[in-house]
Input
Amino acid sequence: MALHSFARRQVVSGFVTGWALVFLAIALPALTAQGPAATPVRYTEARTHKMRRAITLPGTVEPETATIVASTVAGVVTDFPAKEGMRVEKGDVLAQLDTKPTALQLAAQRAALREAEARLKLAESNLARAKELFAATVIARQQLDDAQSEYNAWLGRADTLKGEIARIEDRLERCTVRAPLSGVVTRERTEVGQWLTEGGPVVELLSMDTVEIRVDVPEKYFPALRRGAPATATFEALPGVRAEGRIWALIPQADPAARTFPVKVRAPNSRGRIGAGMLAQVTFPAGEEYLATIIPKDAVLRQGPTQVVYRVNGDNTVEAVIVETGAGAGAWIEVRGNLQAGDKVVTRGNERLRPGQAVLPTPQQYETP
Output
């Protein structure tokens, strides 16, 4: 009985195996004919854009303003909140001088003014009475003139004291040394208890909210630069940081040895990452505008010594196009080669493509340069 069951299972198994082989024989050619599945990719159309040739030169970061803050009055330092490395805003207190002697002078002059104003009021009253008496021929002209002179003297005295009080109040205000601009304290030049002379240094202050980048430009490029033209700076010490600035100054005085002209670019430094003395690479536009074919930078692949772009053909296959790149424009870059406006170039998924490979393309938008 067992032998009979075993034989029956073998027959059934052979029957199933045979049908499976028949199915594979029929389906395999059809599957082979379909080929591999198309690879999903994103593409963007190349376009024509006005470009301007650019030059890139090394430069050095300089602070917009570096100043020594001085005291405009003499006195003993009673408080010195400014510390090296501290960031201060315009108007912040850097140092406080002793105000007691000045405050005493101010109090004395204000008392003198109160007396002068009382005397002036009395002299004004006497003058008015003298005018009435003179009109009634009760007093002589000399007495009227004396009353007028007394009034004028006290009026002048009151005005003098008001001017002196204003001067002392200004001096009292200047006993508090404030930051003339926003920046970073780079050096302390005094301390609590020290006597500061008039004009004595308090701190050295560096303003870095905006930086200046000095670039020595060869004379062949200098005539093409224009004040106010855009310039882009990158920094060796800050990978990925780009500062978008403008040409601030073109100095028409060449270095006699190097034959270069100093050019200054101003750029914002709102995050304060750019430091004075850093090395920069500055790119300037130079020359006239021209029409160029541009594509997104994401479309360009480097394969050994060459740069390649994958273009999507009408049958949704890709071909590799060798290109040369030129000036950048935001997320786009100029290319020279067998590409023209309207060509679909792969911008996502191009790293794993091979020439002739079938793709499933989807458009991708990039911000217009």
In short: The domain at 100-174 is CATH 1.10.287 (Helix Hairpins). The helical segments are 2-34, 100-135, 141-174. Confidence is low (pLDDT under 50) at residues 1-33.
